[in-house]
Specification:
2 copies of one chain form a homodimer.
Chain A (H helix, E strand, L loop, with lengths): L1 H10 L1 E2 L5 E2 L7 E2 L1 H15 L6 E5 L4 H11 L3 E4 L11 E8 L4 E8 L8 E9 L3 H13 L2 E11 L4 H7 L4 E9 L6 E2 L4
Parallel strand pairs in A: 4-5, 4-8, 8-9, 9-10
Antiparallel strand pairs in A: 1-2, 6-7, 10-11
Helix pairs in contact in A: 2-3
């Protein structure tokens, strides 16, 4: 997705050889028109897959997920990292390692919103070590839903998440793949 | 907003006389088409106010906020309750009491995304005691931005947040106002 790549080039800040900061348009300040275009792109990729539900994780996954849901006209469910007072007793739960919090955190979805009838597209803003994705795939499995694939806005392909998911035979569509952040430079996958 | 009221009537669950569960379309599973209509409604209310930015708070505020931003074609900023590794050192910070966590939590926005040039519309899913709203109003004030008003999806008007904000002279537009949840019944403001 060329527009996204240009934005990453012009506004992305390399914090370290592991961390790219794109908080001016993706995960703190958000560009809603870009998010809609991202939603259109994921929707076109999965248009014929009979998707009934989009699954994402709070917080930064919500914007691209909701736009994908808007275009496909299907509900969006976001997995919770912390149980709200209204969650109730019946939920699927997985555990993922949070690199921000440096500890294992739970990931929860009410059993009312993922069922064996659902065909699920997972959408998230980043794919790095794949912990969030692994947790969401696990929730889909627990629910007995069919997983159509994962739509990722930015994959850091020098980390192992994408490889882990593809090795499981899962479909992963990343709009942009970053090969390296070494020496403060952003190297895209197709520029090797 | 009649459609929203009907959804609350048909799908809302009264957990207690303080808590209404609307997690099938607003804050766990989300109906993106409804969110778009909510965005159109807020956008039409503030169309002539010169809004340059939407401010919300993670996580459930993001969906209605991003749709409002999409219709008005302005960026959306969501305040963080937990500092991500990419936040940096320069941010506005307020403190709010979280009724879910039963403790005071911080609320942060990077100084890059709220400035004295901004005219801000705050959007959130619920207004109850007004803690989140008060924190966001404080962030807008710290930034020297102009606050145009607050767009709220559901106001529980038997709690004090709406009164507190209006007493400060702030413009508050709630799509639905709930007067009471007593005896397991949802009483809307215009049904008194």
């Amino acid at each position: 997705m060329e527009k996204l790549k240009q934005l990453i080039r012009s506004e992305g800040i390399v914090i370290s050889d592991q961390i790219l900061k794109v908080d001016s348009f993706l995960n703190h300040q958000i560009d809603p028109v870009l998010m809609y275009e991202i939603g259109e792109t994921f929707a076109s990729m999965y248009r014929d897959q009979g998707i009934t539900k989009i699954l994402t994780i709070e917080s930064s996954g919500i914007a691209p997920a909701i736009m994908t849901g808007l275009v496909l006209k299907v509900p969006v469910v976001f997995a919770r990292k912390q149980a709200p007072t209204t969650l109730g007793q019946a939920f699927f739960q997985s555990e993922i390692f949070s690199y921000t919090k440096k500890k294992t955190v739970p990931l929860m979805v009410s059993t009312r919103f993922l069922t064996s009838q659902d065909v699920v597209l997972i959408v998230d803003d980043f794919l790095a070590n794949g912990e969030a994705a692994r947790g969401m795939v696990d929730l889909v499995k627990q629910a007995g839903s069919t997983l159509a694939g994962l739509g990722i806005v930015i994959e850091k392909s020098f980390q192992l998440g994408g490889k882990m998911l593809r090795n499981k035979g899962l479909r992963v569509d990343s709009l942009v793949r970053i090969e390296s952040l070494e020496n403060g430079e952003i190297l895209f996958h197709d520029e090797e």
